[in-house]
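forwarding from the other thread:

> can someone predict this with magnesium ion?

sure thing
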Amino acid sequence: MTDGLDPATTLERIRRNLVGLKMARALEVLDQTLRRIEQGQIGAVDAIDVLLSEELTLRQNRRVKMAMMTARITSVKTLAGFDFAFQPSLDRNRILALAGLNFIERREAVHLLGPPGTGKSHLAVALGVEAIKAGRSVYFATLADIIASLAKAEREGSLRERIRFLSAFALLIVDEIGYLPVVPGGGNLFFQLVNARYERGAMILTSNRGFAEWGEVFGDPVVATALLDRLLHHAVVVQIEGSSYRLRQHAELVPEHVRSKALITPPPAPKRRGRPPLRREGDPAPA
Ligand code: ADP
Ligand code: MG
């Protein structure tokens, strides 16, 4: 293969091979790596390691960036950037267990419940970022956006395709359930999506309202019951009871009745024969 006679020729071939292999980053760091070899700073094995590691890191970063765009995660939040000390009601280990992503394998629904500003969206996005880093496909949207897109697809006769598109992601994050009233027929459309994903893909849902209020949120108690039936079957419920991080510097301006948050209590899971009770993350998986 190599004649081993002319180092310049060999170097030229290495460059051409890196171009042929589309290893742009390795090509970029080739010269400085060679200089470090010449100066005796690193050996040949280290040099190979540097070239490959640089290339791999670049590719992984690029993949994560693309996946974030596909997921529509615009404001990147991380678990490292979450101050657990500010939210003592939240069990840090439970969130870290969720970051292990077994809930995606088990196709569960994770509910993050709590008053505004308590970090629900932050945690949902952070878990989404972990999933993307682990190579899983993720899609993030508010409930209002999802329903609007389903309603548009229905008008255009492409509802099945839209539901298929939203069902293809390993993790679907539905943010802000309960902030805006659901448009008439919206609950029904969302149910069709939830039903299509049921036991096929994982979801994270965030809400400032308790499950008992879903009838009101969706403007239809029958649809709300059917939704909760699916969404509480294989579910993890994380309740955050704390004050708003957004208002942390203005606590004295917030009225007392807003500061001391009412508890959002999950109702008993809907009765459905042969269904296991709610599990907490970390409990053994159902058979
Ligand atoms: P929610 O969705 O519950 O209304 P967010 O997750 O949007 O609240 O949080 C509001 C803002 O405060 C965001 O910018 C978020 O990053 C930040 N935030 C909330 N809780 C924490 C926390 N415990 N540590 C660090 N930042 C936080
Ligand atoms: Mg939010």
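Residues 149 and 162 are 8 Å apart (CA to CA). thats all i got for now
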